[in-house]
Amino acid sequence: MTAETQSLARAQLAEAARLRALFEARGALPVEAAILQPADLLLDLYGEDIRARAFTTQDPLRGERMLRPDFTVPVVQMHMAEGAAPARYCYAGPVFRRQEDDPDRATEYLQAGFEIFDATNPALSDAEVFATLAEALRPLQLRVATGDIGILIAAVRGLNTSDRRKAALLRHLWRPKRFRALLDRYGSAAQAKHRRKLLERADPFANAGPEIGLRSRAEVEARLDALRADAAEPPIAANEVELLDDLMALQEKAPAALNLLQDMAVDLPAISPAVQALERRLTALQDFGVDVESLDFEASYGRTSMEYYDGFVFGFYAEGRPDLPPVATGGRYDALTRVLGQGSSIPAVGGVIRPDLVLLLGGGT
Question: Would 338 be classed as within a structural domain?
Answer without folding.
Answer: no
